[in-house]
Each structure stands twice: as structure tokens, then as C-alpha cells.
Amino acid sequence: MAKEQDTKVGKNIHAVEEALSKTEHFIEKNQKIILYVVGALVVLIGGYMAFKKFYLGPKEKEAQSQMFWAEKYFEKDSLNLALNGDGNYLGFLDIIDEYGMTKSADLAHYYAGMCYLKKGQFEEAIDYLEDFDSDDQIVCSMAKGALGDAYMELGDNDKALDYYMKAADNNNNLFTTPMFLMKAGWTYEIMGNYAEALKLYERIRKDYYKSYESREIEKYIARAKGMLNQK
User: Which CATH number fits domain 140-231: 1.25.40.10, 3.10.20.30, 1.10.510.10, 1.20.1740.10?
Assistant: First the structure.
């Protein structure tokens, strides 16, 4: 038995040595190619780090400076100035064009979409909101909910409902989740689906009883139940 184990161990050692030998042979044979590949990777990584530090970093600071004033106009509902600038500072549209690779430009997509939504230009709002992408879960939820509003205004209830539910489930919290569950419930009611509307209202009552929406949720629950009893 001991001899069999020794034999197996010997075979395994031989297999490992053979594999190492093949690896060494491969490296020797392709040494130049391997060095070229490693060198290229070093150059690419170094170039990317330099790009971030010496180009993208300063661009981000410039974009943030421009965004400050565009956001101020947005807060005042000066939507045209927020979108197009005031001659001294850029608006959201120019920030998107000039600082396209920055986080500020990405956020400008959200603001531009919200501006167009407020202006009643719903297709333009959809275009910009769909291009928005961020790690900020609350703002992402707001963007999805705004897409729901835009599609609702265009009469596409199915897409509006889809985005309201995405907005509600994107990040579970007492602010955006019950807000968009409520909008989804209203949309179900418009579509005549009071059973699904009731489920959402009861979900708000049960899971988000501390939310603003829960204050009047009994009224909506009663209305949905009343409509179901009429059927």
C-alpha cells in the first residue's frame, strides 16, 4: 500500500515538473511577445491614470463650477437659462457637450430632462433622462420616476407604470419608494385595475406607515375597494 502511494506521489511530482517545464519552454519561446504585451499594459494603465489626473480631474472641476450656476437657475425655475446658460456661465446642454466624460455632465442629463419635463417637452425629457446614469440611488429613482411622468403625459400608461415601479423598487426608502408606489397605484386606477392599485396602497400602509403618502392612504384604499365592489 505504501509503495502504491509512493508511486502515485512520484507520478504527481513528475506531472508537475513536466507542466513547469512546458511553461518555461513557452515563456522562453514567446518571451518577446510576452514582454510586448506586459509593456503595452503598463503603458495603457499609466496613460489612463495620467488621463484621469491631468485631463479629467481639471475638467471635472471646471464642469462643477459651471454646474453651480445652472443649478441655481433650475432652483429658480429659470429653465431656459438653466438649459442654455446666461452668456457668462454654461447651461446644462453646453455642459453635456463640453464636459461629456465627467460626472457633472452625466448629472446635467438629469437636470436637462427635468427642465424639459417642466416645460412640457416630454419627448426631449425622455431623451435626456434615459441617458442619465449615476451611483446616487436616490437621484436614479427620481430620474426613473420622472420618466414615468413623461410617459404618463404622452398617454403611454404601460411605460409610465413600468418606470414608476422601477423608481419605487430602485432603492428602498421612506421618500422615493412610497411616492412612486402611489403614482403606480394611480396609474393602475386609470387603467381600471383597482385590484393592483389596492395592493400598492396596502403596501404603503403596511411598509411605509411613516411616510408622507401614508397620511391619506386610507382614502385611496377605500376608493379602490369601493370600485372593486361595484364590479
Answer: 1.25.40.10
Tens digit of each residue's pLDDT (9 = 90 or more) over 62-97: 878 888 999 999 999 999 999 999 999 999 999 999
**What's the gap between Cα 231 and its chain centre?**
40
- Write down the domain spans for the chain: 140-231
AA letter at 215: R
What does the alpha-carbon distance between residue 180 and residue 64 come to, in Å, rounded to a whole number?
A: 30
C-alpha count within 13 angstroms, C-beta hemisphere, residue 146: 29
Q: Which 3 state secondary structure label does DSSP give 171?
A: coil
Nearest 5 degrees, angle CA 55-CA 57-CA 58?
70
Does the structure show a pLDDT above 50 at 54? no
State the Cα–Cα distance between residues 27 and 64, nearest whole angstrom. Answer: 49
Helices (H), the chain: 2-29, 31-51, 57-75, 79-84, 92-98, 103-119, 122-130, 137-153, 157-170, 176-190, 194-207, 217-230
| DSSP line for 89-121 | S--HHHHHHHSTTSHHHHHHHHHHHHHHHHHT-
SS3 135: coil
Report how far residue 42's alpha carbon sits from residue 26's, in angstroms, rounded to the nearest whole number.
22
The four Cα atoms 75, 78, 83, 86 give a dihedral, to 10 degrees, of -110
With a CB cutoff of 8 Å and minimum separation 6, the contacts of 129 are 109, 110, 113, 114, 117, 143, 146, 147, 150
Tell me what pLDDT residue 135 has: 86
